[in-house]
Amino acid sequence: MEGAPIAGEEPDASAPAAPNPLCQLPSEILGDIFCAYVDSIATEKHLEIWSALPCWDAPSLKYVRIRIARDQNLLLYVCRLWTDIVLSTPQYWRLVVLWHPSKECSLEERADHWGRFRERTARAGSIDLTVLYMVDHVMDPSDKVEGLLLLDEFSTRMSSAVITTLCSFELDGSYRIAEASQSRLRRLMIGGSHKDTVKDLARRLNDFQDLRFLSISPIFVEFLDIPLVSATLVRLHLCLKVDHDIMAQTLLDMPQLLHLRTDINRSGTKPIVHSQLKSLVLISSSSISRDFLSLSTFPALRRLELSINGNDPEWPKPEDLAFFERSACPLEYLSVRGSVRIQDFLSDFLYYLSATIKVVALLCTAAMPSAFLEELSKASPVRTPIPPCIEEFGFPNIPSSQRGRLREAFIGIAALRDAYGLRRVKLDPYLRRNITMRMAIRRLEECGIVVRDCADSFDN
Fold it and tell me: Where do the domains of the chain lie, and which CATH numbers do they carry?
């Protein structure tokens, strides 16, 4: 071909280099891409995990803040164009992470430490901030004052705040969320909180005018002894013990609530009807937590996650099943962990649910019954063990002794593809990548069933 370089010949250095497609994008588009990147550094799931880190877990706290600082600064070192765009894009700097310098630092080093935080925040201009305040349990008292002072300075601009380990061996937990933040704050996650901080927040919760998401994870497990009242909250995560009647009153006072994660640890008598709740996670495996459902009706519920005590042979009891009949909810995802009894009639339970309500994604159990896997492997069962209405099914906790049965089950599902409604199957990551499972997984994928990793919970 004319003009083509001859093999072994050096390319002409004077020839213009092919332009980088990214560099041809307008600066405004690149700025939007960079902002989407920095948003991915600290998603809502990340923020909630970080808020629950205990103050004594210094390596984890250090890793989080180093990772965020590294990822946020990464684009500054690519090229001059990217550096100029990043420094001139206020939205890129809306994520602020505060931490304390070492106790061994000099006064000049401490002043430089806090000065750099103010410099970075100044780049954000006047836009709303997402602030992570990560308190080390070993610090100089003057740094505690400086950190809380900065937090107060940001209070009028915070739309999201993660404040972790406000209580430790050296902190008295007396910090109050600044009143100036009550009109702007939309997400608040507090971890390691002193009980007085939690009680103060509970009393003032209704003063927050636009708060949509609240997560509380105290260091020491405490009982919530007063109902929460909010006219705006739609997502509530309480990693502390709650009295049944207190939660009943909380739900009555928050008819707009959509998502609830809680630990019911004291029994009660109040019936609960909530017409808007779409997601419920009961994190305790105690029978009291499950009895909460026997007095509840949630007709809009789409997602339910339960933890069952492995030593409890009684679940599901008639009153447990009555919850599904009474609610008649359009359930799309159900996770049941730890149940022993359900293994004996798993297929019957699935058909019971499919006749009572619509279930799309199911089911996490302590162990998959061998009889159930063998039924799946049959070429012509009387009925498919998984009802046709279920589109997504998880196979977690499969031991090596059941791997052969699982392979045969997948082959059986593929052979009767038209009889199943499955679109997605989930496996533990190590099993999905196991060489002995490749052929069976390929058979599922060839007939249109996607195989994905099975995480702690299914995707919304």
Answer: 21-220 (no CATH), 332-460 (3.40.50)
